[in-house]
Amino acid sequence: MKVAQIIEPNKPLKISEIDTPTPTGKQVLVKVKAVGVCHSDLHLWEGGYDTGDGFMKVTDRGVRFPVIPGHEIVGTVAQIGDSVEGIRVGDDVLVYPWIGCGSCPTCEKGDTNLCEAPQSLGVFQDGGYAEYSLIPDYKFLAKISGIDLEGAASLACSGLTAYTAVKKAILNSPENILIVGAGGLGLMAVQITKALSNANIICADLDDERLNKAKEFGADNIINTNAIGYGQPEASKNIMSICNEKGPDSIIDFVNAPPTVKLDLSVIRKRGNIVLVGLFGGSIDLSLVTIPLKAITIQGAYTGNYNDMIELLDLAKRGVIKPIISKHYSLDEVNNALEDLKNRKIVGRSVINP
């Protein structure tokens, strides 16, 4: 089968032919229909993350090269092992990629995405930038019908991450919610927030095309920060004026860079809730006294569990949310796909069709 592998960071992915694996036991072999191109793939390709006081290598987290990236996998079951139940050859499936060790208390609770010894597909083990993907256990598959297969791919990561972030952000029944970043995750979050909350939705981004999409999907107010900058006083003033000078009750930051977090902290309402999602990296100086005085909550959101994905699939089946696939690439074009994402040329999501 043809695959695209990261051989070493910051070098072009290598297109290779390797043996197609044969599933045994609970394993399932999926013929990949589409695989989403995610910012996490970029970080894997670049070899790590900017922590603000250094560079955290993915190899220090357990990644081993070469690896086949790609964790937003949708396809058709090609072969099954002899212990597989409820899944048949020919089924269309969405793959849940956030696999854990399987034996720790977190995994036993079902939160494999938060396992401290992760085995995620496309990160710690081979993923979907390939003609076929071997799934280690059928329990990580969800049969899908009634929705566009390629659109469903994004629900395994970008949609799932947005869904988890929104659920955290609406716990305080916000009157106003600010969504920072109108990329694939931000646009999904606008739709989910509109479906699950009555909040006034404000969306901030640097790009008019993305902001117009956000407006189309339900944002009540949009703010282009390109000219003024995320961390500048004028950006804060614009947001505060929309919120009757009280500030948003909740903020979801899909960028999570120093300028955006500075903006978050400058406008968050007393008793407000900031959910940080993006992995841009960096660091900020934090006025510690303002945290207790304003009684704000700052928390992270990192994808969701399998049940969250099933809930999200249901929203898609009901037409409540519509994933955006704006560009398609062949497996041979994988390096172009990553470069286009890196250079902000993608609105919504792009997919590779092996």
UniProtKB/TrEMBL annotation:
Name the CDD domains on file: 6_hydroxyhexanoate_dh_like
**Enoyl reductase (ER) domain segment(s):** 8-352
Biological process, per Gene Ontology: protein tetramerization
Keywords on record: Metal-binding, Oxidoreductase, Zinc
Molecular-function GO term, any one:
oxidoreductase activity
Q: Which cofactor does it need?
A: Zn(2+)
- SMART domains noted in UniProt: PKS_ER
Which Pfam families does the record match to this protein? ADH_N (PF08240), ADH_zinc_N (PF00107)
Q: Report which superkingdom the organism of origin falls in.
A: Archaea
Which protein family is named in the record?
Belongs to the zinc-containing alcohol dehydrogenase family.
Please state what the protein is called: Alcohol dehydrogenase catalytic domain-containing protein
- Its source organism is Marine Group I thaumarchaeote
